[in-house]
Amino acid sequence: MDLQLDGRAALVSGASTGIGAGIARVLAREGARVGITARRRDLLAQLAEAIARDGGARPVVMPGDITDRGEVARIAAEATKALGPIDILVNNVGGSRPVSIDAGDDAWEESFALNFTATRRLTEALLPSMRRRRWGRIINISGSMEPRGLNAAAPAKAALHLWAKGLSCDVAADGVTVNCIPPGRINSEQILNRLHPTEAARQAFIKANIPIGYFGEPEDIAYMVAFLASPLARYVTGAVIPVDGGMHYFAH
Questions:
Q1: By the 8 A CB rule, do 128 and 80 touch?
Q2: What is the mean pLDDT of the chain?
């Protein structure tokens, strides 16, 4: 199936490794012109080189910290200058933040800055152009709504879901869709190094929680992103679509 992404301009945040890098690879493979941003310049450069080596157009590398309001404005401007008006925004930045019940305000504020506010600001910077051109795709990589313990990222991702649903109603008539993808356990830096650092821990979690029987790969998320970014997905908006191997069926 031709997803009709050839020549579309896409910006992917949190793209240095894992899910974000997988999304950038798939969008480039589908013919999109891709900009990638994250904090780690060296990893972004390596990803750009790998995509070019595989035959895709070399992504535009824009290192930066999108929890900084000024950096958001700079990245949005640089992306638009390099790629033209952005058609597709993939908000992938975020991270798990387990906290204790006596965690201070700084832990909660840091998590909201990373997992919600950064996405809102980058979207708001690029949305006016999408609305003027009456075409745009905003895809947010979010998180589970069934936490297994106290985690400051969970309420931030819940805010992301409700913000996205409300925004989708306001911009639908302008040809802009807004959707969220909560990923399950994906073979990525965060999952393999922090949440499940041993093979025994991974297998135990899979047995208890994932009916399909294995962790996913970044490309499993990326293929859903590519579809939602496509003109073919014009009638899908305000949706929250898990890509998790059935893990949500076992959420408690």
A1: no
A2: 93
pTM: 0.94
Number of folded domains that form the chain: 1
Alpha-carbon distance 29 to 13, whole Å? 18
CATH of residue 150? 3.40.50.720
Q: Which two tokens stand for residue 81?
A: 């200058």
Q: What spatial distance separates the first Cα and last Cα of the chain, rounded to whole Å?
A: 37
Say if 157 falls within a structural domain.
yes
Is 86 among the domain residues? yes
Whether the per-residue pLDDT at 252 is higher than 50: the answer is: no
Strand order in the sheet with 176-181: 60-61, 33-37, 9-13, 88-91, 136-141, 176-181
Give the whole-angstrom CA distance, residue 125 versus residue 234: 22
Lowest-confidence region among 42-56, 98-112, 170-184, 219-233: 98-112
Average pLDDT rounded to a whole number, residues 149-157? 91
| Structural domain contains residue 52 | yes
CA distance 240 to 179: 6
